[in-house]
C-alpha cells in the first residue's frame, strides 16, 4: 500500500513538473501581448497552437515574438482537432467568448479568457451550460485577481476586522483606449457595443462587480442602478466612456466607477465596514482606518503559489490541485458579474433601477 502511494505521489509530481500545454484562441484582445511576453520566457509553459481567423494578425505577432508558422490555425475547431492542449487561453473580443467556450466544451478542454465573461447574462448562462455539458473549467482572468492588496482586504473582511461591510467604492479605468494607444484591432472591438457589450461600463465595470461579488461570497445585489455618459463622442461614437453604477444589498451598497476619462490608470478599492475601513494602494499596500485619525498603512503579504500568477493558477485548476469555486476567476462568481453588467446596461438605457435576478433573456 505504501509503495502504491509513493508511486502515485511520484507520478503526480512528475506530471506537475511537465510544461503546461496551452493553446490560444484569438489575438484581437490586446492583453495577448502580455501573455506572449510572459509565457514565452517560461519553461513551465508550452504553446501548442494559435487559432486566429486573421492570418495577417498572426503574422504580426509571429514576427514580434518569433512564433513558429506551424502554430497557426484558422479556427478553434481546427486547432483543437490537431493539437492536444491541456488548457486554452482566450484573447478574442468578448462577443466571441461564447463560441470559444462551446468549442472547448466539445473538445473537453478547459479555458481561461480575459475579462469580462460575456456581453450579456444570456450568453453567460449559455457558457455555463456548455461548460457543464463538456465537464470543463471556465475561468476569467482579471489583473486585480493577482493584487496582494485585494487579498488582504478579503482577509480583513472575513476575519471581521472591519465589521460587517456597509459600503464599497471601486474605481477602475484609464484615459481611454484611443488615448493610451491600444492596438487597432483592440480598439475596433472595444468601441463596438456588440463585440464589447458596452464601452467603459463593460471594459472596467467588470472589475468592481467581480471584487464586490467575491467580497460578498457570491451574493448578488438586490438592485442595480447605472448612469452612462459619452463625454468624448468624437472618439467613442457608439459606446459609453463614462459609467457610474450603484449596487444595493440588504445591508450594504457598492459604487462602481468605471471610466475612460481618468487622468491616469487607476484600480483601487475602498471598503467601509461597521467599525473600520480599508483602502487599497496599488498592488501591494493598504491603509486601514479605525478612527478618523487612526490610519495604518501596511504592506500586504505576498501571494503564495498558485494564486500569485494567472498561468500557474490555471494549470493548478486544470490538474485538479486547486478548487476555483468562489474565487475571483470562477465561473460561479462571473455569472453574477455578467448579471450585474447586463442589469447596469439595462438601467442606463431605461433610466431606472433594475431589480435582480434577471430572467436570462
Mean pLDDT: 95
Give the overall silhouette: globular
What order do the strands of the largest sheet run in, or round the barrel if closed?
A: 14-13-12-11-7-10-9-8-15
- The helix-and-strand class reads alpha/beta
Distance between the termini: 54 Å
Proportion in helices: 25-40%
- Name the poorly predicted regions: 4-15
What radius of gyration results from the CA coordinates? 21 Å
Per DSSP E runs of 2 or more residues, the count of β-strands stands at: 15
Number of discrete helical segments = 12
The biggest sheet, with number of strands, parallel, antiparallel or mixed sense and barrel status, is: 9 strands, mixed
Q: What is the percentage of strand-forming residues?
A: 15-25%
Task: Report the order of strands and helices.
Answer: HEHEHEHEHEHEHEHHHEEEEEEEHHE
Amino acid at each position: 500500500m505504501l509503495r502504491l502511494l509513493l508511486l502515485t505521489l511520484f507520478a503526480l509530481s512528475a506530471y506537475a513538473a511537465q510544461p503546461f500545454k496551452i493553446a490560444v484562441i484569438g489575438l484581437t484582445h490586446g492583453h495577448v501581448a502580455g501573455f506572449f511576453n510572459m509565457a514565452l520566457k517560461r519553461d513551465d509553459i508550452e504553446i501548442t497552437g494559435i487559432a486566429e481567423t486573421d492570418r495577417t494578425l498572426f503574422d504580426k505577432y509571429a514576427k514580434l515574438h518569433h512564433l513558429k508558422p506551424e502554430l497557426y490555425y484558422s479556427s478553434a475547431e481546427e486547432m483543437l482537432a490537431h493539437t492536444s492542449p491541456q488548457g486554452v487561453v482566450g484573447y478574442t473580443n468578448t462577443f466571441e467568448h461564447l463560441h470559444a467556450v462551446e468549442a472547448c466544451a466539445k473538445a473537453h478542454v478547459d479555458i481561461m479568457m480575459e475579462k469580462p465573461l460575456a456581453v450579456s447574462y444570456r450568453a453567460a448562462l449559455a457558457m455555463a451550460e456548455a461548460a457543464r455539458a463538456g465537464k470543463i473549467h471556465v475561468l476569467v482572468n482579471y489583473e486585480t485577481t493577482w493584487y496582494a492588496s485585494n487579498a488582504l482586504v478579503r482577509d480583513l473582511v472575513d476575519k471581521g476586522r472591519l465589521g460587517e461591510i456597509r459600503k464599497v467604492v471601486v474605481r477602475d479605468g484609464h484615459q481611454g483606449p484611443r488615448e493610451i494607444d491600444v492596438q487597432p484591432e483592440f480598439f475596433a472591438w472595444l468601441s463596438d457595443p456588440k463585440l464589447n457589450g458596452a464601452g467603459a461600463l463593460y471594459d472596467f465595470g467588470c472589475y468592481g462587480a467581480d471584487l464586490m461579488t467575491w467580497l460578498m461570497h457570491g451574493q448578488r445585489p438586490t438592485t442595480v442602478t447605472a448612469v452612462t455618459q459619452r463625454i468624448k463622442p468624437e472618439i467613442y461614437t457608439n459606446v459609453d466612456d463614462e459609467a457610474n453604477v450603484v449596487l444595493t444589498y440588504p445591508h450594504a451598497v457598492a459604487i462602481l466607477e468605471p471610466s475612460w476619462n481618468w487622468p491616469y490608470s487607476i484600480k483601487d478599492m475602498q471598503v467601509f465596514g461597521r467599525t473600520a475601513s480599508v483602502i487599497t494602494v496599488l498592488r501591494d499596500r493598504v491603509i486601514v482606518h479605525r478612527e478618523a485619525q487612526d490610519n495604518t498603512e501596511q504592506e500586504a503579504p505576498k501571494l503564495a503559489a498558485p494564486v500569485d500568477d494567472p498561468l500557474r493558477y490555471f494549470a493548478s485548476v486544470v490538474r485538479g490541485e486547486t478548487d476555483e469555486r468562489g474565487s475571483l476567476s470562477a465561473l460561479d462568481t462571473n455569472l453574477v458579474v455578467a448579471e450585474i453588467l447586463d442589469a447596469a446596461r439595462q438601467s442606463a438605457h431605461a433610466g431606472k433601477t433594475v431589480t435582480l435576478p434577471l430572467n436570462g433573456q
